[in-house]
Design a protein that fits this description.
It is a single chain. With 554 residues, the chain is α/β, with parallel strands linked by helices. The protein is 36% helix and 14% strand. It folds into 2 domains: 225 residues, Aspartate Aminotransferase, domain 1 (Alpha-Beta Complex), CATH 3.90.1150.10; 242 residues, Type I PLP-dependent aspartate aminotransferase-like (Major domain) (Aspartate Aminotransferase, domain 2, 3-Layer(aba) Sandwich), CATH 3.40.640. Strand 5, helix 8 and strand 6 form a beta-alpha-beta unit. The longest helix has 26 residues. It is globular. The two termini are 22 Å apart. Belongs to the class-II pyridoxal-phosphate-dependent aminotransferase family. Pfam families: Aminotran_1_2. Keywords: Acyltransferase, Endoplasmic reticulum, Lipid metabolism, Membrane, Pyridoxal phosphate, Sphingolipid metabolism, Transferase, Transmembrane, Transmembrane helix.
Length: 554
């Protein structure tokens, strides 16, 4: 059996140091300040990809940026004015404040930290946290609510808004459903096991359903073993600290999800950020890490691990996996791939970005994904070599402290995964994957033709449509709801200050009629709010990609 120290925390110093010395001796690296990355063998980036790789990050016209900053500026000025009025009792103070008896205490609520929430977010708060009262399928029912005090509080009218087209849920393959026949096995498991486990995996919380699910996940991904967890967010935040620690280096994409960021911070490892999907930025960090080692001591890093996502949930971009794998092999680093949004959503049979690029699962050291999106359930998984998974069964904080996944949820995942694999005796799973691809490409193509600026890869079901100006965020979401279309809008600080957007999530369950209804509404609203900014200008993000020369090792 292989030594688990190759991927597990605290055992890699000699192993990784030896790899670095071998690279230095081989002449791939130089210590004279001028470093050479990968071999210049004439193989361009394009030969790493077996299909055309197209992504869009068009810049808006300059006037849009000017008016966006101006909008935030005006909002900030009026925010200070309203804070002044609240301080002098000219306007009602609705936010949390210190009691008079505690005026000599250090403030528990920092006014300035909540400035944005009080004065900007509150104006458009009605566009978030809307209560849904049905399954979040291609359509849902919404509880109507109104406000009498400018969004500080809400009251329900008792009216239900029926059949709102759902363009915001991560229901990529349409498995969020209530069909009695589809959920028959889930109902059986609910009656057999009940709803909860009331224990952790290491105590009394491992059931035969968990074992069955883990074997199925490993088979689906084509790896040796897998472990499942009850919460997708915790799959990252609680397992990364088990894999890396002090003396290790994490190289993280600047747009990684908060769960990855939190896990990296909790680990105690050194964190360095590379530009989104930019191989030159990543390669420079890898070179510097090999050459200079740890700060002050100059010792070799015990471990270098690259954290990336399959599909980035705010950009709609797909990781440049072939190039990252090439770099990680050349520099002898490890790769942690978060496939939360890509598993089930891309690839010929829904097996994620590894399949999408025609690569081997063995190219990725740690495969992570969630069941909360394509599988219509909850939880997540870590998959890879058996040594890795066995190590996590013992050292994962989630396995030790968190309650196990409830059996009906496990059965829902098994049902959906068997459907994808064709083990249910039908081709319905494959049809769902293909339908998602058709819907995605159709929706993106039509938005491009209308003149909207949208971000991301042509095959990504996450479709960000840029709104830019803060005043248009609320107007867009409210107008769409008036047309019985539910959308997700996102603004600063969740996005860069000049890149507020609406984020659409396409589903295999969306019919062509639904998509056309949404597209027609967008076409009309785009003219009304002047959102069609596209000039078909060249992307500003991958300006350095063409310079890299990479090769894949056997």
């Amino acid at each position: 059996m292989a030594n688990p120290s190759a991927v597990c925390n605290g055992h890699l110093h000699h192993h990784h140091h030896q790899k670095q010395n071998n690279l230095l001796k081989s002449g791939i690296y130089k210590k004279n300040g001028i470093t050479k990355g990968l071999k210049k063998n004439g193989i361009s980036n394009g030969t790493l990809y077996k299909k055309k790789f197209v992504e869009h990050f068009e810049q808006a016209p300059m006037y849009v940026a000017v008016f966006t900053f101006l909008g935030f500026g005006v909002g900030t000025v009026f925010g200070y004015l309203r804070d002044f009025m609240r301080a002098w009792g000219l306007e009602k103070r609705n936010v949390a404040a210190e009691r008079e008896q505690q005026k000599d205490f250090v403030p528990l609520y920092q006014d300035f930290e909540n400035f944005y929430t009080r004065n900007l977010y509150m104006r458009i708060r009605d566009n978030w946290n809307r209560p849904i009262c049905s399954v979040p399928g291609p359509q849902f029912d919404l509880m109507e609510r109104v406000t009498d005090d400018y969004n500080w509080t809400f009251r329900f009218t008792g009216r239900i808004i029926k059949n709102v087209i759902n363009m915001g849920s991560y229901n990529y393959l349409g498995f969020a459903e209530t069909d009695v026949n589809a959920l028959k096995t889930v109902t059986v498991e609910l009656q057999k096991y009940g709803t909860g486990i009331c224990s952790t995996r290491q105590e009394m919380g491992t059931l035969d359903k968990h074992v069955e699910l883990e074997k199925l996940v490993a088979t689906f991904l084509g790896v040796e073993d897998a472990m499942v967890f009850g919460m997708g967010f915790a799959t990252n935040s609680m397992n990364i600290p088990a894999l890396v620690g002090k003396g290790c280096l994490i190289l993280s994409d600047e747009l990684n999800h908060t769960s990855l960021v939190l896990g990296a911070r909790l680990s105690g490892a050194t964190i360095r950020i590379f530009k989104h999907n930019n191989m030159q930025s990543l390669e420079k960090l890898l070179r510097d890490a090999i050459i200079y080692g740890q700060p002050r001591s100059r010792r070799a890093w015990r471990k270098i691990i690259i954290l990336v996502e399959g599909i980035y949930s705010m950009e709609g971009s797909i990781v440049r996996l072939p190039e990252i794998v090439s770099l990680k092999k050349k520099y002898k680093a490890y790769l942690y791939l978060d496939e939360a949004h890509s598993i089930g959503a891309v690839g010929a049979t829904g097996r994620g970005v590894v399949e999408y690029f025609g690569m081997s699962p063995d190219d990725v050291d740690v495969l992570m994904g969630t069941f909360t999106k394509s599988f219509g359930a909850a939880g997540g998984y870590i998959a890879g070599k058996k040594d890795l998974v066995d190590f996590l069964r013992t050292h994962s904080h989630s396995a030790v402290y968190a309650t196990s996944m409830c059996p009906p949820v496990a059965e829902q995942i098994i049902r959906a995964m068997k459907c994808l694999m064709g083990l249910d005796g039908t081709t319905q799973g494959l049809q769902r994957v293909r339908q998602l691809g058709k819907n995605t490409r159709y929706f993106r193509r039509r938005l491009h033709e209308m003149g909207f600026i949208i971000y991301g890869n042509d095959d990504s079901p996450v479709v960000p449509l840029l709104l830019y100006m803060p005043g248009k965020i609320g107007a867009f979401a409210r107008r769409m709801l008036e047309k019985n279309i539910g959308v997700v809008v996102v603004g600063f600080p969740a996005t860069p200050i000049t890149e507020s957007r609406a984020r659409f999530c396409v589903s295999a369950a969306h019919t062509r009629e639904m998509l056309d209804t949404v597209l027609n509404a967008l076409d009309e609203l785009g003219d009304f709010l002047h959102l069609k900014y596209s000039r078909y200008s060249k992307s500003s993000h991958p300006e350095l990609y063409e310079e890299t020369r990479l090769e894949l090792e056997d």
